[in-house]
Amino acid sequence: MPITGIYGPDDFTDRPQGHPSTSSRAAPARTGAALPMPSLQWTDEVERATAPLYERVKHVIPSIEWPLMAPTIHAINKLKRERNAVIVAHNYQAPEIFHGVADIGGDSLQLAVEATKVKADIIVQCGVHFMAETSKLLNPDKTVLIPDTRAGCSLAASITGADVRLLRQKFPGVPVVAYVNTSAEVKAEVDICCTSSNAVQVVESLNAPTVIFLPDRYLATYVASKTDVKIIAWKGACEVHERFTGDELRAFRDADPSVQIIAHPECPPDVLAEADFTGSTAHMINWVRAKRPKRLVMITECSMADNVRAELPDVEMLRPCNLCPHMKRITLSNILESLLTLGEEVTIDPALAERARRSVERMMNLKN
Ligand code: SF4
Q: CB under 6 Å to ligand 1: residues?
């Protein structure tokens, strides 16, 4: 059914001014912790050590570019062992990061959950800020670093904890579900979190006739189309996925009727109406592995198509490509810098973290 109502900052005249988009702070690098910059020359040793990595990305990184990247990749991989660090990278990170230096790759929740299973002291989060916060929530005893604290997210920035409190005043007793793409401050105010993989299941688990679902209006619309629960949405959107259009997809289909189109549920409804499959990044990847389409249009951030193609070179990617400027703030250079200086460390107020963690853990404890 259509969403029941949609609200945003303009609907609350008593909304507090100012808009903190993150609820954690970056601690400065620790004094005395910095290590000297290693040599970044293209040497025989670097070529030998990185050859197996190049094998993994040779279909998406031209050989002429590899000698420029490989010395930094080699330095990062040595340094992470010295620091007892693990590097986690979101599916939207560039192939030289995702396949070159990451120990764990996946969607935001997979990254945080997998990081709880490793013995490392340090987690370097190659993703955006809310992901680093989620990693910190689930790994409170580990040092979580983000190479660039400016790596934000239009969804996380669209809503504050105060906004959630105003929604609760307007709709007393209505449970609130937050997509994981929110700050820890927002997670602390809601009943439960969800991902794009389990959003419908989470909404229905509450056994309520109406649920407030935030902050993505398009994911809310998608969820509403799959359930009888009435959905009240928030006016947030992903600036990458909302730019795709149904016309764009129809043009691909007209040019080649055999093409397969898969899309992320953060896309507008007219885009999803054209897709052969709709799913989270993890579900999309599994779909491609299982179906092995000959020609594929993957409607999500560009780098994910590169990362999938590196693994499955037989799948030809046709790409209406939108980059996430926030994800692209993470580079090999600032990952190296982060490991050298141990900055920027993500810290969250312990009382707030406990409430936020509860919302994430409630979701994780749901039976499949
Ligand atoms: S792709 Fe969209 S949802 Fe993901 S980090 Fe970028 S702006 Fe946020």
A: 92, 128, 153-155, 181, 238-240, 301, 324, 326-327
